[in-house]
Amino acid sequence: MLLFILSLCGFSGALATRLLDPLITTIASDFATSVGVVAILSSAFALPFGLSQPFLGPTGDAFGKALVVKVAVATLALCLLASALAPDLTVLFITRVLGGIAAGGIMPVCMAMIGDSFPLAVRQVAMSRYIGATLIGQIVGVSIGGMIAEWIGWRGVFGCAAVLTVIAAGAAMMMLPKPNGQRAAPPSLAEAVDRYRMVLRNPRSFVCFSIVFLEGLAIYGIMPYIGELLRSRGAGGLREAGFVIGGLGIGGLLYAFVVPLILRFAKRPAMMVAGGSIAAMALATVGLDVSWATQMASMVGLGFGFFLLHNSVQTEVTELAPSARASAFSLHAFSFFMGQAIGPIAYGAALPMFGAAASSAGGAVILAVTGVAASKLLGSPLGRSA
Q1: 289 DSSP assignment
Q2: Of 106, 173, 190, 246, whose Cβ has the fewest other Cβ atoms within 10 Å?
Q3: Residue 264: phi, psi to the nearest 5?
Q4: Which of 337, 142, 361, 134 is nearest to 243 (CA)?
Q5: Contact in structure between 239 and 147 (CB atoms under 8 Å)
Q6: Smallest Cα–Cα separation from 13: which of 148, 108, 95?
């Protein structure tokens, strides 16, 4: 039951995270501005998500992770409703910033709770199930969201997301454990610093956090531009953009279903190399002038390869500092979402200068190198920290 509730919360966080990507073009048209300006809304969510992590991690360790999750999901629901009602781009920007902070208290803290609740032998499978739920959230957000936006508009999509998140908030309030007499005083700065020192004393932490930063930059940076690439080539509109971006989640779901079988035959270092290589080959084809169906197939491969690498790194993160898991996952999420925040800016500069094919090929090189580096540097058994 715990994994189900955490997965429901993760679903709502992922739904809000990727909801905007297929809607960029129609929001730009509605507010009479450029696609490049509206694409910054993706960074407006990802950047606060990452920057909030140094504060949310110690808060979860001090007050209880369940309390942080409850407050975060409820706040996210309010932000989604405010986004649906935003009268102008400035208000939408503000609601996305606040929503990014709220979502920052959901996904990493839920993963830390999984690390606390499941033994190492089954932890990667448990985390893959949680990831599967977040991927369904992504698929619903980008595929179904993009499709129904043609009928109910982008505001209606945000409104539907708010309703689903309210349901998740209610389930969390009722089913997640109570604080059980944890202290009500704010966590001290010294305690927070000590927890981060504990994490960073493990040299593997720098490897893990660098890897996920590069993943976020290379993969998620191009997502806000998929709709415009399809439109400019006459390959599709909102619906097709939603299907293409949703392919990333479908690939991740495929990974979540087969990971127990993969773990019988492969160890994490091999999974990291394979994941980086598969993701690189898939990303290299995303920038090509092909049909939307072919791009969707590439996205499925990209999602499978990405999560093959990413989930292996996440499992490493659970053991960086077992007594400060929320802080470890906060640094992990900070790195990942900083990459996602910088990615749209980097691709926004590269696409006009080098074109889609060269830009996606550059991201592919990053992923291939990242997979090999992860395997070499994290190839020894999981390190232990105090």
Answers
A1: S
A2: 190
A3: -75, -30
A4: 142
A5: yes
A6: 108
Q: How far is CA 369 from CA 1, 29, 207, 288, in A?
A: 39, 39, 13, 21
For the record, the structure tokens of 73 come out as 């999901």
Q: How far is CA 165 from CA 12, 42, 47, 143, 169, in A?
A: 5, 19, 21, 18, 6
Q: Could you read off the pLDDT of 251-267 as tens digits, one per residue?
A: 988 988 888 888 888 88
> Burial code of 237-274, b = ≥16 C-beta within 10 A, e = fewer?
bbbbbbbbbbbbbbbbbbbbeebeebeeebebbebbbb
Q: How far apart are the first and last CA of the chain?
A: 30
Q: Counting beta carbons within 10 angstroms of the beta carbon of residue 210, is it exposed (0 to 12), middle (13 to 18) or buried (19 or more)?
A: middle
Distance separating alpha carbons of residues 159 and 84, to the nearest angstrom: 6
pLDDT in tens, 345-374: 899 889 999 998 999 999 999 999 999 999
Length of the chain equals 386
What percentage of residues in the chain have a pLDDT greater than 90? 30
In sequence order, the 6+-apart residues with CB closer than 8 A to the CB of 161 are 12, 15, 16, 19, 80, 141, 145
CA distance 41 to 35: 10
Q: Report the C-alpha gap between 113 and 109 in whole angstroms.
A: 6
* Helical segments of the chain, H only: 2-18, 24-30, 35-51, 53-63, 65-84, 89-103, 107-117, 120-139, 145-175, 189-200, 204-215, 226-232, 238-265, 268-286, 292-317, 325-354, 356-377
Cβ of 48: how many Cβ atoms within 10 Å? 21
The token duo for 261 is 């079988």
Cα 362 off chain centre by: 21
The 10s digit of each residue's pLDDT in 2-49 is: 888 998 898 898 888 878 777 887 888 888 888 778 877 877 887 788
